[in-house]
Design a protein that fits this description.
Elements (H helix, E strand, L loop, with lengths): L1 E12 L2 E12 L3 E5 L6 H9 L6 E6 L5 E3 L12 H7 L2 H19 L3 H20 L5 H11 L16 H15 L3 E5 L7 H13 L3 E5 L3 H7 L2 E6 L2 E6 L2 H36 L5 H16 L24 E11 L3 E11 L3 E5 L6 H8 L7 E6 L5 E4 L12 H5 L9 H10 L16 H14 L4 E5 L7 H13 L3 E5 L3 H7 L2 E6 L2 E5 L3 H19 L29 H22 L8 H30 L3
Helix pairs in contact: 2-6, 3-4, 5-6, 9-10, 13-14, 18-19
Length: about 625
């Protein structure tokens, strides 16, 4: 069932179009991931779907009776409004129904004749059916499940909402919309301010919900686990792909290759026709040349457009002075506030390593890195910096950037007189900030622009040890990939705190995982840590399982036949193999033509089946080619 549709949708600011002529549908049960570079108009599109903004062109049609709700990032809470009040306000429609049912029950008891009683009874039954359908009789359980899942405690339920931090208030607004459970849920960066454990809970919760969703996120793990369709918004156009993020990326790359090959074939055909027309246009073959001109005109109308590539900023960190082999060494490092954060941490960080730091919110990640670089004093133990170590620090709140200062001045190295404005502007351009934006104040920038400016400032320090606290906040997927590449290519050392699992997997050589008052050293990336946790769980389950009596060993099978060498290729005539290859290549060309047509991607099942057939044919040819070569050599 189609819940929302749009035709010819267009929106512009200050006369410049953000996007034009968008057409799409949102169907029941679809969980759509909306991706695209910063500034593409993702948040604007979400506001149009919610009705907060109106388009200049086209229209959004919402099916009558369908409830659409957008996750609010900011809210003005009342002075006495508690956390529980805000959460339960998401259930306002159910609470209204409960009051209506109470009124109907009273009408039944006060009815003076059978007709009035029947009318009140029918109303009561109808409301009761609605409440059953919406699971209204487990309201308290639902509220607690979501608040506990988002890491609120029972002690906080009666606390005034306005006394929570900004990140906690964002989580509270997320709880409200989850409890509201509209027919179409619009979630703009729902995993912001969530640690990894809470994000995983949210992934599991959303995956079980029957409602339709449109989700803006740069968290690639999150998109992989939640969405079943991807919208890519780029350069004013919307492309639709079936599947999760990984499937989208694979299909996009495959489509790009196919369209590029088609464009090359188009250019070859065009060049041949033009050459023929030039050579024979005025001679004895003028008639044939005129035929070629008509073919060329028709061909020009079928020009192939290659896919619009999304390119992240170049980024890249400068060459730096070489430090000693041991960059930071901690011995019995211990810190606590109202409870232990980490105890007796002993670790030596070597030059060139990238150390990923993760853990639940409040576990002490920021405190750990500050203590390791001497910005916080340890309760016990010590942290030593190595020879010629220069620290560059990127703070999560971006406090290194003064809001009233222009971008070019905010990034300018304070203690380096050799820098000139042109160099600073070139550095900013490398991080994706160019033109007049560099003369705006920091306070005028978007979240993504501020993050890029802070990374450019970090680069300008020339530090050989980069300490980054949540550097991917507000960056789009392509900027995250640029930062990942920049860290991998950096010759110095990196300590990075992040909740982005995909990012940690791409850059970390080792991990420091905080939790339960200790810091655990993991020799590997995020997946290594996940595999370790899984093995530990399995070992614990095995240990708890009652011991079974071992069965007698089965007699071993004879190995005389299995040890015999096997033929690499079965006997087949080379001519037969050539025929199979020709058929497979012809079918592959047809499938590639389908992959290059937009109509293929309008139906999710068709797109997936076409892509699967393309993969199968390529695998078949990869086996046929060496088989044919072997047959030729063997003279079969």
């Amino acid at each position: 069932m189609i819940l929302i549709s749009a035709q010819g949708l267009g929106r512009q600011y200050a006369g410049d179009p953000i996007f034009l002529d968008l057409s799409f549908e949102v169907r029941a049960g679809e969980r759509i991931g909306l991706v695209g570079p910063n500034g593409a108009g993702k948040t604007t599109l979400m506001k149009l779907l919610d009705g907060l903004e109106q388009p200049e062109y086209g229209r959004v049609y919402v099916r009558p009776g369908i409830r659409v709700s957008l996750l609010r990032q900011h809210h003005d809470f009342g002075p006495t409004e508690t956390l529980m009040d805000v959460a339960r306000s998401g259930l306002a429609s159910l609470l209204d129904l409960q009051r209506e049912m109470e009124e109907a029950a009273q009408e039944m008891s006060e009815a003076e004749d059978a007709a009035d009683r029947d009318r009140a009874t029918r109303r009561y039954d109808a409301i009761h059916e609605q409440l059953l359908h919406q699971d209204a009789y487990s309201i308290d359980h639902r509220v607690e499940e979501i608040l506990y899942g988002l890491r609120f405690t029972e002690a906080e339920f009666d606390r005034p909402a306005r006394t929570f931090s900004g990140g906690q208030q964002s989580r509270l607004m997320l709880a409200k919309i989850l409890l509201e459970s509209p027919d179409v849920m619009l979630l703009d960066e729902p995993s912001n301010h969530l640690d990894i454990e809470t994000t995983e809970w949210l992934e599991n919760y959303l995956s079980r919900q029957p409602v339709a969703m449109v989700i803006v996120s740069h968290d690639r793990y999150f998109l992989d686990r939640v969405v079943n369709k991807v919208w890519e918004l780029h350069e004013g156009k919307l492309e639709v792909y079936p599947g999760n993020y990984s499937q989208y990326w694979k299909l996009r790359q495959e489509k790009a290759k196919v369209l590029e090959r088609q464009a090359e074939r188009f250019e070859e055909q065009t060049e041949k026709l033009e050459a023929y027309i030039r050579k024979y246009g005025a001679g004895q073959r003028a008639k044939q040349a005129h035929d070629r001109e008509r073919k060329l005109e028709k061909l020009q109308g079928d020009r192939v457009e290659t896919i619009r590539e999304i390119v992240g900023p170049v980024m890249g960190f400068e060459e730096v002075e070489r430090s000693g082999d041991i960059v930071i060494e901690t011995r019995h490092l211990t810190k606590a506030f109202d409870r232990p954060l980490f105890t007796d941490l002993n670790v030596a960080i070597e030059r060139g390593e990238c150390i990923g730091i993760m853990g639940p919110n409040g576990s002490g990640k920021t405190t750990l890195i500050k203590t390791m670089i001497g910005r916080e004093k340890a309760d016990r133990g010590e942290a030593r910096l190595g020879h010629k170590v220069q620290i560059g620090y990127h703070d999560q709140g971006l406090h290194s950037l003064t809001p009233t200062t222009t971008v070019v001045r905010a990034v300018w190295p304070e203690d380096d007189p050799d820098w000139v404005e042109g160099e600073v502007r070139s550095l900013l351009a490398r991080f994706g900030l160019s033109g007049e934006i560099v003369f705006q104040t920091v306070g005028q920038l978007s979240g993504g622009e501020k993050s890029k400016a802070a990374l450019a400032r970090l680069c300008a320090t020339g530090a050989n040890v980069l300490v980054m606290d949540e550097p991917t906040n507000h960056l789009d997927i392509w900027s995250c990939e640029s930062l990942e590449r920049s860290i991998r290519e950096f010759e110095g050392t990196v300590l990075v705190v992040s909740h982005d699992r995909y990012f940690l997997n791409a850059v970390a050589d080792r991990m420091l995982v905080l939790g339960d008052g200790r810091a655990r050293v993991i020799e590997g990336d995020y997946e290594t840590y996940q595999n370790l946790i899984q093995r530990e769980k399995e070992a614990a389950a095995e240990k708890a399982r009652p011991k079974a009596v071992a069965a007698p060993a089965a007699p071993s099978a004879s190995t005389s036949t299995s040890s015999a060498p096997k033929k690499k290729f079965s006997y087949r005539k080379a001519a037969d193999l050539e025929q199979d290859i020709a058929q497979a290549e012809a079918e592959l060309a047809e499938v590639e033509d389908l992959l290059g047509q937009p109509a293929t991607y309008r139906d999710a099942m068709t797109a997936v089946k076409t892509q699967e057939r393309h993969t199968a044919l390529k695998e078949k040819l990869e086996k046929l080619y060496p088989h044919w070569e072997h047959a030729i050599e063997a003279n079969w």
